[in-house]
Amino acid sequence: MAERVIDPLAVKAQLRRLLQRQQADQGAAPWLHAEVARRMAQRLLLIRQRPTRIIEWWGALAGGGEVLAEAYPDAARLVVEPDAAWSEASRRQRQLPWWSARRWSGGGDQIIDEAQPLPADSSQLVWANMVLHAVSDPPQLMQRWHEALQVDGFVMFSCLGPDTLKQLRAIYRSLGWGAMGIDFVDMHDYGDMLLQAGFADPVMDQETLTLTWATPADLLAELRGLGGNVAPGRGHGLRTPRWRRSLELELERLRGPDGRLALSFEVAYGHAFKAAPRRAATAATSVSLDAMRQLLREPRKLAQ
C-alpha cells in the first residue's frame, strides 16, 4: 500500500476554510481572537511611531478592528480579507453611519481581498492578529508585508504556538485517536522568517492563556469555532454518538480545583521593522602590499 503524502499547504488551506466557515456561522470573530487583539494592542505602546496608514490583515476574522481604531483613530486603514465574500461581509460590518464625519470625508476603511495586489511602500503598520497559524506560506506573506510597508514601518502579529491544547493532545495520544490538530510553528522560526523577508530587529515573545468551561459540550463548541480539527492523521469517517460520549468522559480529566475544564493556548507575538535598504557595495580597489609600503615611506606634503 502506497504511503500517503501529506501536503502541509493543503492542510493549512483547509484550516482557513474551516475557520472562515465557522466564523461565518457565528457572524463574529471568536472571543479568543478579540482577547489576543486587546493584548497585542498593549504592545503598540512600546512603539513611538504613530502610523497614519495601516494594513489590517483578515479584519473580520481576527477581531482587532476596535482596538486598532482606539489606538489610531485618525489612521486610514486598508483591510485585507481572505476572499471576496469575506470582503463584502466586512464592508457591511464596517459601514459608517450616515451622520459620521469620516463617511463624508472619505475616511472609511478600504476593504479588498488578499488576491489583490497591495500598494507598495504605502503603509506604516501591518497588523495581523491570529492569522499566521492558518496561513499556507508564511514566508511569502511576510514578503508581501515587507513590500507594502514604508521604510521604518513595522509589522505586528500574533498566532498560536506549539504548546496550544497540550492537555487535549495528551488525551488523544494516550487513547490512540490520532492527532487532534495540526502542529503549530515555534515563535523563533517566525523570527527567522522575518529576517529572511528583509525585516530588521524582530522581537518575539509568548504567553500562555488558560480558558475554562463548565461542560465538555461548551469546550467542544468553542474549539469548533476556532477552526476544528484539520490534522491529516485524524479519523476520516464520521464519529458515532458513542465516541462523542467517550470523548466527553475523557474531557472530564481536564477539570481543575475550581471544578471547571481547562485548556491552555500558547500565543506568540512578534514585531519587526522595515529598515532602509543597504547601499550596494562599490567596486573593490586593489592596492598591492608593496604600493602600500611605498606610500608609508613617502613623506607627506603639507597643504599650503
- Low-pLDDT windows of residues: 1-6, 97-106, 281-287, 299-304
Distance between the termini: 90 Å
The Rg value, from CA coordinates, equals: 25 Å
Largest sheet: 7 strands, mixed
What amount of the residues lies in strands? 15-25%
Return the string of H and E elements: HHEHHEHHEEHEHHEHHEH
Shape: elongated
Structural class: alpha/beta
The chain-level mean pLDDT equals 81
Q: Output the number of helix runs.
A: 12
Helix content: 25-40%
Short description:
This protein has 304 residues and is α/β, with parallel strands linked by helices.
Characterise the protein shown here.
With 304 residues, this protein is an alpha/beta fold. Helices cover 39% and strands 20% of the residues. The protein has 12 helices and 7 strands. It has a 7-stranded mixed β-sheet with strand order 3-2-1-4-5-7-6, with helices on both faces. The N and C termini lie far apart (90 Å).
Based on the model shown, name its key terms:
single chain; 304 residues; alpha/beta; 7-stranded mixed beta sheet; 39% helix; 20% strand; disordered N terminus; disordered C terminus
Write the layout of secondary structure elements.
Elements: H1 8-26, H2 31-43, E1 53-57, H3 59-62, H4 65-71, E2 76-81, H5 84-93, H6 101-104, E3 110-113, E4 123-128, H7 138-148, E5 149-160, H8 166-175, H9 187-196, E6 199-213, H10 216-225, H11 241-251, E7 261-274, H12 289-297
Parallel strand pairs: 1-2, 1-4, 2-3, 4-5
Antiparallel strand pairs: 5-7, 6-7
Helix pairs in contact: 7-9
